Amino acid sequence: MKSRKINKFFLFLLSAAAVLSIGRGELFAHCDTLDGPVIQDARTALEKGDVTPALKWVKKDAEPQIRAVFDKTIAERKSNKDAADMKFFETLVRIHRAGEGASFTGLKPGGSVETIVAGADKALETGSLDALTQEMATHLTSGVKKRFERAFALRKHKDESVEAGREYVEAYVEYVHYVEGLHDMIGGKGSHNHEE
User: Fold this and answer.
1) Closest CA to 140 of 179, 171, 190
2) 132-137 contacts, C-beta under 8 A, 24 or more apart
3) 103: left (phi over 0), alpha (psi -120 to 50) or beta
4) Are 89 and 34 contacting, i.e. CB atoms less than 8 angstroms apart?
5) Which of 39, 40, 53, 105 is most buried by a 10 A CB count?
6) Which 3-state string (H, E, C) describes 98-149?
7) 21-35: string of b/e by CB count within 10 Å (b at 16+)?
C-alpha cells in the first residue's frame, strides 16, 4: 500500500512538472539539445561506426532512413567531420521528434535543458528520486500557491465593479484550470505530447 502511495505521489509530481512546462514548448524537449540523450547516443554511434545506439530514438519505419543518413555521414566525415555529424544529429532529432508528433525547430546548444528535466535524467543515472521529487514538489506548491493567492485576493473585490469582476474571473479561471489540469494528468487524462 505504501509503495502505491509513493508511486501515485511521484506520478502526481511528474504530471505537475509537465503541466508547468506546457505552453512553453519545452515539455520533454531536451532531446533536441546538443547534450541531450539523443545526441549522446548519436555521438556514440558515430564513434563506434555502428548506427545501433541511435536507432532506439526513431520508430521502426524510420530506421532505413536513419541507416542511410548514417552511412552517408560516415563517408562524409572523412572530409568534414563536424558538418557531417551535425547533419546526422539534425536528421536523427527531427525524425525522433516527428515520431512523437512534435515539430523540430533546430538543435539547441548544450546546457539549455530545463532544471527539472536534467533532474529527471540525473535520477535515472543515480537511481534516486529524492532530489527530483523535492524539486517537483517545490514547483507544484509554488504554481498552485501563486494562482490561488491572486484569485483569493481579487475575490474580495470582485463585486465592486465590472472591471474588478473580470480581473477576478481571469484569475479564477487560470487557478481552476491549472488545478484541473494537474488533476486530469494524475488521473491519466493528460497527454504526453511535446506540442500539448
Assistant:
1) 179
2) 133/9, 133/10, 133/13, 136/13, 136/14, 136/16, 136/17, 137/13
3) beta
4) yes
5) 39
6) HHCCCCCCCCECCCCCCHHHHHHHHHHHHCCCHHHHHHHHHHHHHHHHHHHH
7) bbeeebbbbbbbbbe
**Does 88 score more than 60 pLDDT?**
yes
pTM of the predicted model as reported, rounded to 2 decimal places: 0.61
Alpha carbons 21 and 113: distance in angstroms, whole number: 12
Residue 163, CA atoms < 13 Å, CB-side half-sphere? 0
Residue with cell 494562482: 147
Distance CA 32, CA 29 (A): 6
CA distance linking residue 1 with residue 7, whole number of Å: 10
Q: What pLDDT digit, counting tens, does each position of 120-172 carry?
A: 888 999 999 998 988 888 888 899 999 999 999 999 999 999 999 999 999 99
In DSSP terms, 108 is beta-bridged to 33
> What would the pLDDT profile of 8-49 be if each residue is shown by its tens digit?
555 455 445 444 444 334 444 578 888 888 999 999 999 999
